[in-house]
Amino acid sequence: MSDTDETQLEARLADQTEFEPPESFVEQANVTDPDIYEEFEENWPDCWERAADLLDWETDHDEVLVDDDEPFYEWFVGGELNASENCVDRHLEDRGDELAIQWEGELGETRSYTYEELHREVNECAAALRDLGVGEDDIVTMYMPMVPELPIAMLACARIGAPHSVVFAGFSADALATRMNAADSEYLVTCDGYYRRGDGLDHISKANEGLEGVDHETTTVVVDRLGDDLDHELGDDQLDYDDLVADYEGESVEPVVRDAEDMLFLMYTSGTTGKPKGVKHTTGGYLSYAAWTSHSVLDVKPDDTYWCSADIGWITGHSYIVYGPLALGTTTVMYEGTPDYPDKDRMWEIVENYEVDQLYTAPTAIRAFMKWGEEYPEQHDLSSLRLLGTVGEPINPKAWKWYYKHIGNESCPIVDTWWQTETGGMMITTLPGIATMKPGSAGPPLPGIDAQVVDESGEEVAPGEAGYVTVNKPWPGMLRTLYRNDDRFINEYWEAYSDEEADEWVYFPEDGAKIDDDGYITILGRVDDVINVSGHRLGTMEIESAVVDVEGVAEAAAVGGDHDMKGEAVYTYVILEDGYEESEEMRQSIVEGVEDGIGPIARPEQVIFTPELPKTRSGKIMRRLLEDIANDDDLGNTSTLRNPDIVDDIQEKVRSD
Ligand code: 6R9
């Protein structure tokens, strides 16, 4: 293309606000009939049979939905199945020799597993875990980086009916201990380390430190990823993964028959109070929903090579690296490392080498690719790509268009998928073979999902006005409760908009949004309690308590400030105890305190010392104001403040730092 053509194309793209799905995509898409929205609405909740039909059931359900005890909904009641059987065994006959997992390590080594091989690995691991004493409903914690043993162990747990609780490897030792204690989890599968930018990173020391904070006996299995690159000794209650599994060579374990409503896994996520929330997902509803959305939104087909570049330690990896794609019998790609090692074209090299059909990634990654420049994707043949997806935060139209043009060559639809750990799978997004795409707007709710944008009193807002997302009807992939905390489940998600007297239950995801006159929803972000760093949700309260733990800190507020690369970055405002003075040393110990308490991902971008925090009369910190200060935005109304003068002082400080 000549330079003038190029410039004209950029100009056209910049102005274009609507994009139609490419014809070549529509012709082959899994879902193409626009009547699907109406069909689901008319046949609700029976429409969800369509999701359940994507799985193999040991026993069929008696009822699609039981809502006797709202909001504790039950789906596919009476149905029985096993998730590992659905993700592995049932593909053996037709697809035993086809690849299930294609793994690539950061240093370039590869490991691939056919369904046959995955079946063997999962069985051996299941046999080993069972002999260690893991029984049905025992929670197994996994603190693992992106190694194949992670999905293998997850599926092994599913096979023996033991729910897993995966803790993101980037989280701190404390985070591991808190989660193991909260779930009374007696088993841990972890790893000696992993590679980051070519260096072997010690992970086992952090795991061991975490185990010291666990208040009960534990058994740990350690995957040896680094070999000679890391010397480590196993403790008394620790076993080497390979040695352990070697004793079970060729062994097979009958998949345990689970009720549809039996727990498949727990996933801890940040909340408004310091304590993480244990989101409970079930076997039948969750798996059906992960499979259905992989089929309808990601257009996954068995012959595809599909790549979601998230970490399995986040819900996106659970639903869309492991359960959804494997339930559909496709090849799922797993990459261990960072996108810019050894060079900034690593992602595109992977797409080219494996001829990836769908790529599902996060806006934070797309912003990085954009910054690095199109010369990196241009070095590779990306023509295998058929669909692109994003998840985790709002994507701005400029990044959307860059993705569309430079990665998708204007011939792949983009699905901007809004959902949450709690929803189990995608909720608001376009169906790629049907709908017009509008960059920046996620799209309409999926068929069968009754979501709207409302004001504080629950009335639907007029098009263009800001409000809050709510969901009026349950769906199969929804969380069933917060582990051991039904009250908190109700408080967090249902209290705000439900009318208990009238028995009207409304799910509140705590996201702000706008709606267009054609029903497209643009997500504006979390209501106020969570900071989204590179697509990872961090609770402000969790960060604040880590800051306050630092000696000399009296009080702290953490907010998210806009950040070019990460989406949001953490800003902390700190009040010191009397007798302590603002210093570089103090700043350093606060940064370290957060890194130790939560993980490097939460590292504060800026630490601002202040004698007071802006508070409402009832004593609530006005985080919204602190966010505006961090972003150097207009402050708007400060009249509800108890101490309005402090605002100018803080503002001056941030600007001069
Ligand atoms: C899947 C996942 C959930 C929160 C959610 C929202 C934000 C996710 C988004 C999005 C705008 C999208 N979010 N996808 N915001 N557009 N396409 O990210 O789960 O880690 O639980 O975070 O992420 O604020 O409420 P989780």
Automatic annotation (TrEMBL):
**Which SUPFAM superfamilies has this protein been placed in?**
Acetyl-CoA synthetase-like
Pfam families documented for this protein: ACAS_N, AMP-binding, AMP-binding_C
- List the molecular function annotations (GO) for this entry: 3-hydroxypropionyl-CoA synthetase activity; acetate-CoA ligase activity; AMP binding; ATP binding
Query: Where does the record place the Acetyl-coenzyme A synthetase N-terminal domain?
Result: 35-87
InterPro entries, per database record: Ac_CoA_lig, ACAS_N, AMP-bd_C, AMP-bd_C_sf, AMP-binding_CS, AMP-dep_synth/lig_dom, ANL_N_sf
- What keywords appear on the UniProt entry? ATP-binding, Ligase, Nucleotide-binding
Name the Gene Ontology biological process terms: acetyl-CoA biosynthetic process from acetate; carbon fixation by 3-hydroxypropionate cycle
- Give all residue intervals belonging to the AMP-binding enzyme C-terminal domain: 542-620
Annotated AMP-dependent synthetase/ligase domain residues: 89-475
Keyword Metal-binding found = no
Region annotated Disordered sits at 1-30, 632-657
Task: Give a yes or no for keyword Transmembrane in this entry.
Answer: no
Which branch of life, at top level? Archaea
| EC code | 6.2.1.1
By sequence similarity, the record places it as follows: Belongs to the ATP-dependent AMP-binding enzyme family.
What is the recorded name of this protein?
A: Acetate--CoA ligase
What broad taxonomic lineage does this protein's source fall under?
A: Archaea, Methanobacteriati, Methanobacteriota, Stenosarchaea group, Halobacteria
